[in-house]
Amino acid sequence: MITAATALYCVLGNPVSHSKSPVVHNAAFKDKGIDAAYLAFAPDNIRDAVSAIRTFNIRGASVTIPFKEVIREHLDWIDPGAEEIGAVNTVVNKHGRLMGYNTDCDAAVAPLRKFGINGKKICIVGAGGAARAVAHGIALEGGQIIIVNRTPAKGVELADRVEGIFMPVEKAGEIKADVIINTTSLGMEPDTETLSFPEQAIEKGMVVMDVVYTPVETRLLKTARSKNCATVDGLSMFIAQAAAQFKLWTGMEPDTELMRQTVLKS
Ligand code: ATR
Q1: Among 37, 75, 195, 254, which residue's beta carbon has the most beta carbons within 10 A?
Q2: Known catalytic membership, residue 68
Q3: Which of 132, 111, 238, 133 is nearest to 179 (CA)?
Q4: Omega prior to 22 cis, within 30 of 0
Q5: CA of 70 to the centre of ligand 1 (A)
Q6: Which residue of the set 20, 30, 32, 68 is catalytic?
Q7: Residue 62, exposed/middle/buried by CB under 10 A (0-12, 13-18, 19+)?
Q8: In this predicted structure, what is the pLDDT of residue 212?
């Protein structure tokens, strides 16, 4: 029951209506018996939204497109890892002090560890906020990074940051990689037939990961599976980043299977 004592959490994004964060966090709060509610807000202005967190004593927030970078200057402290990535996806309100973290990076790297990262050729498609978090995590674990991106300048900039190389989209078909990770929105509903990486460069034995999770089995993953590649779906990463947020806010480990099933049912 929502009462005057209920703690409020939220996601800040614009647009935000597609976000699955409210369903997973509300399910986890209920499961753990925590008196909290989680809502979605689509502010125009992130400075005002951060001010509202302070005014209404919102205990924590998830941050998504397009605020992950710009929110940093309005917070009181940024975790060194998030600072290095250049993006914050989690705010913790610690007695009025707003602290920024990034849980995307670990969430992307964790499911890849069992396949090996050190010394592997890892092709990242995209050069936005998600790509930055993924590339940072891979670089820390010794992966050799190849960035493919529509806008070359952004691709080159990210490749330089992680001591990787840039390949233009037209040359992606020539890439021989051990792991391919799509971090763009290509393949997301409603354009589910779009493929973010050329089919001919996906070969048996590769690991293929997609951050898109609507649908859970993207065309990229379907194609990879048909060629006997190991696959990692975007829902795994989404749940892992949400679970890490929940732990930062409550100190508790949520039931990630419950979170996953909640998204699949929603
Ligand atoms: P996010 O924070 O989710 O990573 P973003 O910062 O907007 O979002 O980055 C989106 C990435 O997807 C970018 O690399 C973008 O390519 P550009 O750098 O060329 O903009 C890529 N992307 C988005 N839509 C795309 C499309 N239709 N074709 C190719 N790349 C696309």
Answers
A1: 254
A2: yes
A3: 111
A4: no
A5: 17
A6: 68
A7: buried
A8: 93
Q: Is the pLDDT of residue 156 over 90?
A: yes
Identical fold between 7-102 and 106-234: yes
Domain residue spans in the chain? 7-102, 106-234
Distance from residue 67's CA to the centre of ligand 1 (Å)? 15
CA distance linking residue 88 with residue 121, whole number of Å = 27
Please tell me the residue having the least CA distance from ligand 1 atom 21: 184
Q: Write down the pLDDT at residue 116.
A: 96
CATH architecture under which domain 7-102 falls: 3-Layer(aba) Sandwich (3.40)
pLDDT (tens digit, 9 = 90+) per residue, 157-180?
999 999 999 999 999 999 999 999
Q: How many Cβ atoms are within 10 Å of 44's Cβ, its own excluded? A: 7
Tell how far the Cα of 71 is from the centroid of ligand 1, in angstroms. 19
Residue written as tokens 């993006």? 87
Fold of 106-234: Rossmann fold (3.40.50)
pLDDT at 18: 87
Residue of the CA atom closest to atom 12 of ligand 1: 184
Write the CA distances from 254 to 88, 143, 251, 264, integer angstroms: 21, 30, 9, 17
Give me the chain's average pLDDT, please. Answer: 96
Predicted TM-score (pTM) of the model is 0.89
Task: Please give the sequence-ordered ranges of beta strands (E in DSSP) within the chain, or none if there are none.
Answer: 7-12, 36-41, 60-63, 77-78, 90-94, 97-101, 121-125, 144-149, 165-168, 179-182, 207-210, 230-232
Q: What is the DSSP letter of 9?
A: E
Distances in whole angstroms, Cα of residue 235 to Cα of each of 18, 20, 260:
14, 10, 7
